Amino acid sequence: MSAGGPVPVLLVGLHGHGRSQLRSLLPLARAGTVRLAGVCDRVPPAPGDDLEGHGPVPFFEDLPTALRRTGARVTVLVTPIHTHLPLTLTALEHGSHVLLEKPTTATLAELDRLVEAVDASGLACQIGFQSLGSAAVDAVRALVAEGAVGAVRGIGGSGVWVRTSAYYARAPWAGRRRLEGRDVVDGAITNPFAHATATALALTGDGGQPPVGIELDLYRAHPIESDDTSALRLRTAQGTPVVLATTLCGPQESPPRLVVHGVRGRIELEYTLDRVTVHRPGRAPRTAVHPRRNLVADLVDHVRHGTPLLVPPAATRGFMHVLEAVRTGPDPRPIGLEHQRVWEQDGAVHRTVDGVAELVGRAAESLSLFRELGAPWARAVPEVRP
Q1: Is residue 79 part of a domain?
Q2: CA distance 284 to 277
Q3: What domain range is 114 assigned to?
Q4: 138 and 274: one domain?
Q5: What pLDDT digit, counting tens, does each position of 305-343 carry?
Q6: Which domain of life is it from (predicted)?
Q7: Going by C-beta distance under 8 Å and a sequence separation of 6 or more, which residues neighbour residue 86?
């Protein structure tokens, strides 16, 4: 790849989250870092797909054809989870570097195949955990290293979002554990809140290491296969306990956060906002917002100049052990209608689990699972070990 002109990029997956990736590519195109050489999807672009005003962009329905005709040096894959491995292999076979949307793959075994294929190809693959491109992660790690809040007791994470029946009706794989005999694992923990797990592990420096143990507390209010209201507890390779509590059935959305609990204070990271707040007794909270590195720009710099990738596949191994535990663990337990508020609005069914926002917060603060906090719909499930 030349060090001069813009790098030709192919975007695979234009709709849904693909629009977010498109919007992140356009500033790089305007800056001359990349050139949008084409888009590939089963569904053609439509008005409102953010392509207007950027010149003609070729559209393709077939990935091999798109790769041959565009000569894309970087392929951005924003496709269903169970397609991540085969489509990455196709891009590598055509000599294209890859930005692969999270979660990395649908199984831990597929991660091993992906790493082997990337290594054998001599090409680069970056995983789209955008939060790991934030300087906020290093800022938190530096605060911990300097003893800003004393010894770390654990990390708690909380996430409260709103997803309706329309979210699960948008694609055949949405909310599925398996589809047509293939693993999908599209649950709250493994997809919408995947960043919480990956970022928590990055804060401890254990993103590439298997956790010592994983306890799952998975439930569903929506009539789906996967979890929409979930908690998990793991212990990192270094022994740090991490508890993540999430729901897609909240009364309203709030920024997800990770809290480093220290013996002399706490550090909060709102990872979607790149915002870090330090709380210490007797002092006013101190907040800083940190810059975030675009992962495609980072991939281009890696290819051109050999700079280390921020999120190579191997760096997601810890997260993938969590996904594997969810994949092989018990099916999520249903939350009874007596514990829900259900209504229809704008053609979609909304579901809120009673008291769930407070419960998620308590779990993150106390490093406890839902069943340990006495949630009336939570029952004991066995521990799963990687």
Answers
A1: yes
A2: 10
A3: 7-129
A4: yes
A5: 999 999 999 999 999 999 999 999 999 999 999 999 999
A6: Bacteria
A7: none
